[in-house]
UniProtKB/TrEMBL annotation, chain A:
Gene3D superfamilies: 3.40.50.970. Pfam families: TPP_enzyme_C. This is 2-oxoglutarate ferredoxin oxidoreductase subunit beta. Keywords: Oxidoreductase. One of its GO terms (molecular function) is 2-oxoglutarate synthase activity. Residues 66-213 form the Thiamine pyrophosphate enzyme TPP-binding domain. SUPFAM superfamilies: Thiamin diphosphate-binding fold (THDP-binding). The keyword Repeat does not apply. GO terms for biological process: cellular respiration. Its EC number is 1.2.7.11, 1.2.7.3.
UniProtKB/TrEMBL annotation, chain B:
It comes from the Bacteria. Its EC number is 1.2.7.11, 1.2.7.3. NCBIfam families: OAFO_sf (TIGR03710). Residues 20-207 form the Pyruvate/ketoisovalerate oxidoreductase catalytic domain. One of its GO terms (biological process) is response to oxidative stress. It comes from Streptosporangium saharense. Keywords: Oxidoreductase. Residues 258-472 form the Pyruvate flavodoxin/ferredoxin oxidoreductase pyrimidine binding domain. The keyword Oxidoreductase applies. This is 2-oxoglutarate ferredoxin oxidoreductase subunit alpha. InterPro entries: 2-oxoacid/accept_OxRdtase_asu, Pyruvate:ferred/Flavod_OxRd, Pyrv/ketoisovalerate_OxRed_cat, Pyrv_Fd/Flavodoxin_OxRdtase_N, Pyrv_flavodox_OxRed_cen, THDP-binding, Transketo_C/PFOR_II. Pfam families: POR (PF01558), POR_N (PF01855).
Amino acid sequence: MSEIQNGRGLSLVPKSDVKLGMKDFKSDQEVRWCPGCGDYAILAAVQSFVPELGLRRENMVFVSGIGCSSRFPYYMDTYGFHSIHGRAPAIATGLAASRPDLSVWVITGDGDSLSIGGNHLIHALRRNINLNILLFNNRIYGLTKGQYSPTSEVGKITKSTPMGSLDKPFNPISLAIGAEASFVARTIDSDRKHLHSVLREAAEHKGTSLVEIYQNCNIFNDGAFDQLKDPGQRDAITLRLEHGQPIASATKAVRRGADGGIEVVPRSEVSEEEILVHDVRRPDPSLAFALSRLDEPAFEHVPIGIFRSVDRPSYEELMTEQLDEAIGKGGPGDLDDLLLAGDTWRIG
Amino acid sequence: MTKQVQQLDRVIIRFAGDSGDGMQLTGDRFTSGTAEFGNDLSTLPNFPAEIRAPAGTLPGVSSFQLHFADHDILTPGDAPNVLVAMNPAALKANLGDLPRGADIIANTDEFTKRNLQKVGYDGSPLEDDSLSEWRVHPVPLTSLTVKALEGFDLSKKDAERSKNMFALGLLSWLYHRPTETTIKFLETKFAKRPDIAKANIAAFQAGWNYGETTESFSVSYEVKPAQLPPGVYRNISGNQALAYGLVAASVKSKLPLFLGSYPITPASDILHELSKHKRFGIRTFQAEDEIAGVGAALGASFGGALGVTTTSGPGVALKAETVGLAVTTELPLIVVDVQRAGPSTGMPTKTEQTDLLMALYGRNGESPLPVVAPATPSDCFDAAVEAARLAVKYRTPVMLLSDGYLANGSEPWRVPSSAELPDISTEFATAPNGEDGTTFLPFKRDPETLARPWAIPGTAGLEHRIGGIEKADGTGNISYDPNNHDKMVRLRQAKIEGIAHDIPALDVDDPDGDARVLVLGWGSTYGPIAAAVRRIRRAGGKVAQAHLRHLNPLPANTGEVLRAYDKVLLPEINLGQLALLLRARFLVDIISYNRVRGLPFKAEELAGVIQDVIDSE
Ligand code: SF4
C-alpha cells in the first residue's frame, strides 16, 4: 500500500500464488507500432510494473477503444478487449460493475477518449467505478494518419486543417477534475520511474483513476513534449507534484496570489513558508484545478504527478451493497414467488 | 328498485379523459377486478407522449380500452360498446370509433362553454341531437363526487380528483365487478395518507350506489367467467412479462443478469421493473446514453453475466456499432427493441413493426444475429427466455422485437412454475482446448453449434484478447488474411443459420386441412389476425393461419409452408418488411396488407382483407 492510498483499490482482486515477472505479461503477438513510437515505452513500463502488484494475471483485464494506443491489450498476456471507438469506458464499466474481483484497465488516446468517447469518459469519472484509465495523449490522430485532435494546440496545421485548427483544446486534467474524478494524474512516456509510481497509485486507488500520459507520436506530431524531455529545459518548466511536499522546482515555486488564485514565481522571491504544499487528498478540487491550469496556454510550467486522489465510495461497491441489502431484507429471490406475487386467481 | 340484469358474452369499454384524469389507473383497476372475476380479457392503453398536454385539449386525451368476455379472446376489441368520456375532448377524440347504439357515459360537469370551445364544439353535443345515434347517459361525475366527499376534510380540488374512482364505481356496478380488490388496492396505495385512501374508497362506493339508484341506468350486465385451461392466472402487461422473462432467464441460465439501459418510451418500464429485483442479484445500470447502455451490457457479458440492453428504435440505431462488436466477438447479449412509430422520434407512445429490417441488417458488414418476436403481451415472457437461450447457447447477440402495443397491453397469463421452464444453462471454458493441451483457442468452435468457448476473466490459463478487428479462425489473433475473412464471415453466418434446426417448425393452423389461403404474421399482429381468422371460419370460410416467432433464422419448413398455399397474405404494421424478405428468399408472391397508423390492426378490418383474398381465388 502506498502512502496516499488506503489499499481498497485492489482489495477484492485475488493475489498470485507465484511471483510473476515482466515476461509473464508479454503476449506472443508482434508489437506493431511505428518504430520510435512512445507507446513502446509505455508498454514496457506497464509490463514491468504490473508484476509488482502481485495480482493474478487472469484477474487483470485491459480494455481499449480505437486508435494506435488501443492495440495495447493485444500485447498484454492478460484478458483483453479491443473494442470500438470511444466506448472502452462504457464496456469496462459493465465489466467492473459486475466483477469487482478484477483489476480493469482502460487504454485510450486523446481522440478516443476526448472526442468520440467524451461522454463515456466524463460519466465514468463521476461514477467512480473501479477502473484505471490510461489516456495516451499525443495531441494528434495517429491511426487515421495525422488529423488534429481535441488536445492539439490552436492553429495546428494538419491534413484536415491546412490553414490551422480553430478549436481550443481540452486540458484532460482540468476536464477530469471538472468531471468529479477522484484520482487524476499526469506522467510522461520517457520517465519510466515516474510512470511506475503513478500507475501504482492509480491501481491501488478505489474508484476511477485517470492518468494522462504524454506520449510522443514520432510520425505525425514528433517532439510534442520535447521541452519536457530535453535536459536543458526540462527542469525549468516541470513542476513535480508530490504529496506533502512544496510545489516547487529548483528555480520556481507556486504560492497563493493576491487575487486568491495561485501563481508561479521565482523561487528566490519566496520564503519556504509561502510555497504551497501539495495535498492530493484535499476534498475541494479547486486547488487541483488551479494547478491544472498552470500550463495554459503554453508549456511554461507543466505540473507532473498526482493532482488529486480522494477517497469516496466506488460505484460497484455501492451497487453490491444495494444487492446485499435487498437480499438481507427479503432473502435471495425466488422465481415462483416473484411470478405469483400480486393478484392471482385459480381456474379449474 | 330492482333492475334488470342482462347477460352478455363480451363487452368492450373505453375510459377516456384528460391525461391528468387518471384514466390509466381507472382502466387498470377495472382490469384487475375483471381478471379476478375470471373473464378473459385484453387491454389497450393509448396515451399522449406529453406527460401533461394542455388540459381539456384533444392532444391531451388519454384512454384505456378493455375487452372482456366469457370465452377466450385475442384482441382488445375493435370498437367500444361503452365510452366513458370525462370531458368534451375525450368525447370528440373517441366518437369516431363508436359504433351506432353504443353507450356514452359523459361527465356533464366538464361540458362547460370553455371546455366545449377548446375542442371546437359550438354548443354542447349532450344538448342537441348530434348524439342521437348513441345511448347517452349524462352524469355529473365531478359534482356527485364532491358531494359524496362533503364529510371529508378535503379541498374541492382534491375531492374532484377522486372523480375517476366514482366513474370506476359506476362501471363496476354496471358490469357486476367485484369491489374488494379495488378497495384493498386503494388502501395500500395510499397507506401513508389514510384520509386520501378513505376519500377514494368513498367516491368509488358512491359511484356504485349511484348506479344502483339512478334512473339513468335501468339495466346492468353480467359477463360470465371464461373457461380457460386450468392453472393459476394473473394479469400481465408485455413489459412486465418481458422483465419477468429476463429474471427467469437469469435463474434458468444460472448467470447473473446485468441490464445496461437508457430511459426511452415505451421500454423504460422494463428497466424500472428489473431495478426492483435486486434480490435475484440483478444489476441494473442506467447509463449516460444508449451506446453506454449496450456497451456496459457487453462488458458484463465478457465477464460472464447475462448482458441485456433494453430500448426502442432510436436506441437500436445508436447501439448498432456495439451490437456489431457483439456479433464479431461472439458474446451473448440480448437487445430488446420495444418498437414504436418512426422514423426518428416518430410517435413514441404508438406502436409499429418497422424495425424488422434494422434488426436484421442495420449494422455494417455481414452481421447476422437471431431475431425473436413475441406474439402477445404474456408471450413476452417466453420470448425473453427463448432469446436468452439462443444468446447463451450460440454466443451471439439476439434481437428481441416487442412493440408498444404488446408493451402496454395486458392479458391474463397462466403463470408457469419455475420447474416447467427450460434449463438454459451453459458452461464456461475452464481448460485449454488446443491440440497441445496448453494453448487456448478462443475461436475454436463447437462442431455442432459452431459456438465458441466462453472463457471469462479470472480463469487461469485461458487469458486471451478479443476485439472488433477480424480474427484468425481458431486463435482469434488479428488477421487481415483475405481467405480467413471470407471463412469467418461464412462461419458467423452458418452459426446463425444453423439455429433453424434448434427451433420449432412453423406450425400451421388449418383445421380442415383444405384452406387455399394462408395468413402469415409475426409479432403483435397475432391477436387481430387470429380474431379475424375466427370470424372467417365462423362464417363458413376457409383460411389457414401461421405465425412466426423466429424471424432469423426462419423455421426450416417456412418455404414449404408458404408454397403449400395458393395465396399467402401477410399483414404487417410497416410497408412490407417481412414480405420483402420472404419474396426474395422463397420466390413466393406474398400479398401484403400494410397500415402504419401507430395502432394495432382491427379484427374486422383484417377479416375483410382475408375475405377479399379468398374471394379473388
Ligand atoms: S502513428 Fe504515431 S502514435 Fe501511432 S504508432 Fe505511429 S508513432 Fe505511434
